[in-house]
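Data deposition worksheet. Section B asks for the primary sequence of the deposited chain exactly as it was used as input, without tags or linkers unless they were present during the calculation. Section C holds the resulting structure in token form. Section D is free text for depositor observations; keep each observation to a single sentence. Incomplete worksheets are returned to the depositor.
Section A, Depositor: J.P.
Section B:
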Amino acid sequence: MDEISLIRRAQEGDGPAFRSLFEGNKQRVFSIAYHYLKNAEDAEDVLQETFVKAYHSLSRYRPEKGINFGGWLNRICVNASIDTLRKNKVRDAESLDAQESLYVPANPGHANPEKSAHDKEIRETINRALNRLSSRQRMIFTLRHYQEFTTREIAESLNLTEGNIKKQLFRAIDTLKKHLRRFILEDGYGL
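Section C:
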């Protein structure tokens, strides 16, 4: 069954249809919240909050207005993530060092300890650089480069113009380049 049919059935009170919508979107919503909040427990709470809000607002969702369901859920998720950040008064950047790296996957199979240490240093530096971005820039950068959203999808999700998204991405990349300059020069990485 296609998504529009599921939405219409869920709007009529069909629980299994809403469950199918949840199952089809939960991983993406969780991933957005996790990248934004950097905490699995908070991301799980935001996932639940997003779908509770979506359930209660589903009667007002109109696919014929041109906003896709995923974009609509993303907007709810982003707003819930921002609310969570405000409640938590933003976690210290140091807490990220104690967590598993979020942005650059670790490769524990390195036979070379020096290479492993260098890779770990790169991951930690990238994480610190990402934490220096504003929460909006970090969200936009994450959606674009880790979730592979288009500029238009991000604009719809965050209720911003595509021009604003492009400007925020440019600023985020410029900030990251400054913080990662040493690794860019040493290793020939390019952003």
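Section D:
Residues 90-110 have pLDDT under 50 and may be disordered.
The first helix runs from residue 3 to 11.
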